[in-house]
Amino acid sequence: MILYSDPADSGSDRGDVYPNGPWLPNTGVQRGNVKSIKGDISTFLYPSYEGGYHADGEELAKIAPKIPVIPIPYNDIGPIHELIVTSDPATPEEWGNYNIGPSAENIELNVKTNDTLALCRNIIGVIEGKEEPDRYVLVGVHRDAWIHGAVDPVSGMSTILEISRAIGEQVKAGWQP
Q: Which of 46, 96, 173, 177 has its CA 20 to 30 A from that of 149?
């Protein structure tokens, strides 16, 4: 399956694209997946922690997605659309001027993935409250990145690091929430 964002849904047809606006440029790649599983697929619906149960091999193959999916930018979908010359069954009118196949030629999709379990650490700081120590305020940010490495989470990460630094200084000076 080839996954791309239509400009009519989230891109240039809606308005100004990044960096001049909030919409996805036609060179942008959609992030996400087509299988609605949150978290670590190998621990399906359970926390993922070191020493915990992780499905692998045949068991993991039973729950892992069966259809290869690759996200591509809208600018790259044109040649593929040109190969799809018919719509059988007919495309719903609200979909616009798209044909859904079959294609005039076979399209080969090669997807390479790296299915590796890797350690990811959570950093947790605790400051006990003075008057209500049993109450919590949680502040967090994601540290992973789908694309562009550290650029993805850096705004949230820099904000939380600065909050941590400022609160840490207050705690060192004797403040207690």
A: 46
Tell me, what DSSP letter sits at residue 87?
B
- Tracing tokens 């593929």 back to the chain, one arrives at 80
Q: Are 104 and 63 in contact (CB under 8 A)?
A: no
Distance of CA 49 to the CA centre of its chain: 21
Residue with structure tokens 């490495």? 149
Contact (CB, 8 A) for 41 and 61: no
Cβ atoms of 29 and 71 within 8 Å: the answer is: yes
Query: Per mean pLDDT, which range of 68-72, 86-90, 169-173 is the poorest?
Result: 86-90
For 136-164, what is each residue's pLDDT tens digit? 888 888 776 665 556 667 778 888 899 99
Contact 104, 84 (CB under 8 A): yes
Neighbouring CB atoms inside 10 A of 15's CB total 10
Hey, what are 39's tokens?
């978290």
pLDDT-based confidence at residue 175 (cuts at 50, 70, 90):
very high
Q: Is 35 helix (H, G, I), strand (E, B) or coil?
A: coil
Contact 104, 83 (CB under 8 A): yes
